Amino acid sequence: MENDAEEDASLDSPSISATPSGSLPEVQPRNRVDRLLAQRMRKSQSGSALNGEGEAAAEPGEATPSPPAPEEEGPRLIVVANRLPVSAGYASEGKWTLQLSAGGLVSALGGVQGFNTMWVGWPGIFLPAGRERDALTQTLAAKSCVPVFLDAKTVDLYYNGFCNSVLWSLFHYVPLQTDSRLSETRTLQFQWAAYQEANRRFADVLMRHYRVGDVVWVQDYHLMMLPALLKAKSVDMKVGWFLHTPFPSSEIYRALPVREELLRAVLKADLIGFHTYDYARHFVSACTRILGLEGTPDGVEDNGVLTRVAAFPIGMDPSSFATALKRSDVRNNIAQLKKRFAGRKVMLGVDRLDMIKGIPQKLLAFEKFLDEHPEWCDKVLLVQIAVPSRVEVPEYQQLRSMTHEIVGRINGHYGSLTHVPIHHLDRHMTFHELCALYAITDVALVTSLRDGMNLVSYEYVACQAANAGVLVLSEFAGAAQSLGAGAILVNPWNINDMAAAIRNALTMSETERRQRHRQNYMHITAHTSQVWADTFISELNDTHVEAELRTKHIPPLLDEEMAVNDFRRAKRRLLVLGYNATLTTSVEAPRQPTLHFDQIQAWTRVNPRVYSCVQKLCADPDTVVIIFSGADKSKLEETFGELDLWLAAENGMFMRAPPTASNASKEWVSLVDVPNTDWMESVQLVFDYFCERTPRSFVEARETSVVWNYKYADSEFGRLQARDLLQHLWTGPISNSPVDIVQGSKSVEVRPVGVSKGLAMQRFLQALAAHDGPDAADFEFVLVAGHFLMRDENLFTFFEGRSLQPPDHPHSLKLGSLSQPNLIALTAQDQPYVCKPSGFQSHAVPDGK
Ligand SMILES: O=P(O)(O)OC[C@H]1O[C@H](O[C@H]2O[C@H](CO)[C@@H](O)[C@H](O)[C@H]2O)[C@H](O)[C@@H](O)[C@@H]1O
Ligand SMILES: O=c1ccn([C@@H]2O[C@H](COP(=O)(O)OP(=O)(O)O)[C@@H](O)[C@H]2O)c(=O)[nH]1
After folding, report:
1. CB under 6 Å to ligand 2: residues?
2. Tens-digit pLDDT profile for residues 727-755
3. Which of 120, 121, 118, 112 has its CA nearest to residue 144?
4. Which residues are 218's β-sheet partners?
5. DSSP state of 574
6. Reported ipTM exceeds the 0.95 cut
7. Stated pTM of the model
8. DSSP H helical segments within 508-651, as ranges?
9. Which 3 state secondary structure label does DSSP give 824?
10. Which ligand 2 atom minimizes the distance to the CA of 316?
11. Closest-lying ligand 2 atom to the alpha carbon of residue 352
């Protein structure tokens, strides 16, 4: 596309960054975070000299990007895209012309105002370091653009190769091609290496310009590694990623050889956006099925860290088209075109010449229509703009030949001396030429085989206020989900259906046309590119603040010595201890393919040193100990039954008081209502089936829960099996049962809904007070140590911010260490407490206590 750059963007293009004020957008504050941001925005707006002087905002559709504002105060929006909104052309020594780049991404972002925006991207030209590169950099700086220079080889492998032959194809449901030559395999490796290298170059350039507080918005499939690279350099950076193409079904995506690397890298962003809910759902499903992560209604969760995933349908700027249609040159153009095509209906196609746009299918449907309705032959014509795109890629070159062949055939067959059915233009139109064409068209044909959104359909609607022309729209374009009500939807693979749709559109009554147009017009004016950008950025700010708040919940490392002192000083103490992997000695399971839970039970032993420490602690009348475990009652009883401590089995489902506690019996009591367990048998059957398929995994069947554990299996294979197992469970035995599925690091547990350690802890404290008197639960020191899962074990939140002391007590509870993700510790002192992942055997039991 960059090759046919002719016009100067300053004369004939929508504004790409009309931000004379350099201000952030005024979005309606929705919550506390929004209000804070809105305050900041107002501050930055009032500080803006240009705004303060009341300079008019640039006219949409006409203005050039605003000058850079490197010295301006306040956060900026940094848009990082493969391509800058302008592509460079050499004029003369030290002089460069800039041409607006093509495609919906640039059109949409061009319609966005109100941000202090800086662009980072490739300028579409190869230049060695030196005077000319410096001159171009300066020219671009005047448009708030920062170039990332790439060499020809990198662009070929990264852009033509990995981006367009691999990712673009696959994301549009075109299967990856395999060549029998060994060199082809190497090519993919080189392309992948170049893709990573190019992403690193973008990251390096961005980091040279980034200022703390800036919002970084990464665009599209070209830069999927960028969120990870940026976060590695600055963990606090606000990073959003938006995909402009479809995200395919995980069944398609999983064919990609580097599927995991790309997913993991984009997941580092704070917010991930797609055009439609379907694409977002596909992405979440790819993360759950390929990475084994958990999909939630808000996004994807990895060990307690959430990446927000949501749909943000893009739009365009209808006002720039309305303004353009009033210009005298555009009106003259409209008049000329009307005169030229008088007496005939005009159909229009505007596409980059791309396989996904379904241009051959459109032509074939037109041919079919003419064949079936010869009476229309000299009464209708199709203007097809096929903008050259990615001209270096062989598939695009083949498409061009094929398209020309079909056009030639149709024109040869159905044309006459006075009429040419298809006006096919292999060229880029200027914005104002396009406006005129849109305005005189009776029927627009958008026949994409797949399309992220398709803004041409929006633009057509924007220019049809007078005519109320008909939009024939592929059901495979993202736009079908927003403009489907007013358009005639077609399956582009069904040529007969499309031919019928053409007839329907050409003969539709004016009343119906106006009704359909009104429907679509309402949509495009409500869902503009401005709304899209404002919503995304506002959501990104919120998400980032929420993530920071969550991170603050992760306590700092504890100081061991201080913890011991705190323990000594405290008058009353509570120790909440896990069992498995906290008090036990780890053992290597024998290398046999089949393992049974009974065997595992037999090997699992409490570390003798730890046991004697726990014994001493229990003997202390001021220290209360409770062992909190997923294990069943019998195991806990057999191991700790003689000690003067509390036991909570099956994650708090059952509790037993110490044998010596006053009024205590050796009876287990249920902490929550004993649930219906009708589902257990069928779940166990599924688990058994997976045990057979997964060597060295085993099933633990308890009274009210069942666990499939693969900690001794091959971890990679186990993870894949766990993913499959989850699918089986969700669609099978538990689909209507009152259960929770809890995914551990190497296990899957099904348990009654609502059983949680937080709730059980609350019941335990009540039981303690009932047994030992109302003061028994007044602790000055609390330690919780165990390999508790982050998501389901809400012990953390139970203690967090809670003072077990009377309000005037000097000690408040404080969160402790996370020296290992699953190990938590709390203390009642001001200073945090140390607890090592190896358990607390080395330090938690002070000598002489
Ligand atoms: O930069 P190119 O390789 O020349 O390609 C042009 C752009 O094509 C793609 O556009 C997509 O974005 C539109 C706006 O969101 C959407 O309506 C359309 O369906 C997509 O195809 C590509 O995603 C961009 O990155 C390119 O710049
Ligand atoms: O000759 C042309 C053809 C297209 N476009 C613009 O290119 C964009 C195409 O965006 P769309 O979302 O339809 O598809 P994409 O090309 O991004 O896949 C639209 O804004 C068009 O106005 C243009 O400026 N000149």
Report:
1. 102-105, 107, 350, 352, 385, 387, 428-429, 431, 434, 453-456, 459
2. 788 777 777 778 888 877 789 999 888 77
3. 118
4. 80, 241
5. E
6. yes
7. 0.72
8. 510-526, 529-552, 560-569, 597-603, 608-619, 633-640
9. coil
10. 20
11. 16
